[in-house]
Design a protein that fits this description.
mainly alpha, Recoverin, domain 1, 2 domains, 15 helices, 64% helix, elongated, EF_Hand_1_Ca_BS, EF-hand domain-containing protein, calcium
């Protein structure tokens, strides 16, 4: 009679990794890597040992001190590591500190610049990301600046007009002059972001596009009648019709 052999019982660490992965909505392999690096606890762990474990988890040579201190405090390593608290920190910071550990220095610098511009213009980071996508799309020579020829191509596409001929070179030059605030003959990314929020994306608090739409905002910068209508529409509340 053939005896049925039960399947091997998975090690406790794998079972715990699966449970924690489900609880924190992480990949089980990711949780397993953290458990192997930090152990199952609750043994105390010194800062140097913790730093080495963090480097192993993220496969990097060094970890920023502020990130290290934040994770160390969250995990309670001085009195005994709490893996669940460490995972909670990981989830909360995975799009900031954790991604910064894995990103290249250039990517970190770019993320910081996008975040700073979002704060300056009081808008969401994803809005500045969209502006950067458009900037890189039309910066055809990858110079880091948009010259007039590139700007002439982007205006009709962003304002949804058939061609630059329908807008007019004179008007495009006026817009280019508004965007080129330092008057050096080209538009860098911070300058483009301010222009984009003013004329294309309606999220900016001072955006003309938010008040009247992108196309009207564009034409309103040239025609006094439209400027007056836009101003009156903002300054005067709409009258309610009496019944």
């Amino acid at each position: 009679m053939e005896v049925e052999v039960p399947p091997p019982t998975p090690p406790v660490t794998y079972v715990r990794a699966a449970i924690l992965a489900r609880r924190f909505r992480l990949d089980a392999r990711e949780v397993m890597r953290i458990l192997k690096a930090f152990g199952s606890g609750p043994e105390a762990m010194g800062m140097e040992e913790f730093r080495c474990a963090m480097c192993r988890v993220f496969d990097v040579g060094e970890v920023r001190k502020d990130t290290l201190d934040s994770a160390f405090e969250a995990a309670g390593c001085g009195s005994g590591i709490d893996v669940e608290r460490l995972l909670a920190w990981y989830v909360q910071n995975m799009f900031t500190e954790v991604n910064a550990l894995k990103a290249s220095p250039d990517q970190v610098a770019n993320d910081d610049r996008v975040s700073e511009l979002a704060k300056r213009h009081q808008c969401r980071v994803c809005t500045v990301d969209r502006a950067q996508f458009q900037f890189q799309r039309f910066d055809q020579d990858r110079s880091g600046d948009i010259d007039f020829e590139e700007f002439q191509e982007l205006v009709p596409k962003l304002l949804h007009t058939p061609s630059s001929g329908d807008v007019g070179e004179r008007r495009i030059r006026t817009l280019f002059g508004e965007a080129d605030t330092d008057k050096n003959g080209s538009v860098d990314f911070p300058e483009f972001t301010a222009w984009y929020l003013q004329y294309v994306n309606p999220e900016g608090p001072n955006s003309n596009a938010a008040k009247s739409g992108a196309v009207d905002a564009f034409h309103g910068s040239h025609y006094p009648s439209i400027q007056r209508r836009m101003f009156e529409g903002v300054q005067q509340p709409q009258r309610r019709r009496s019944l």
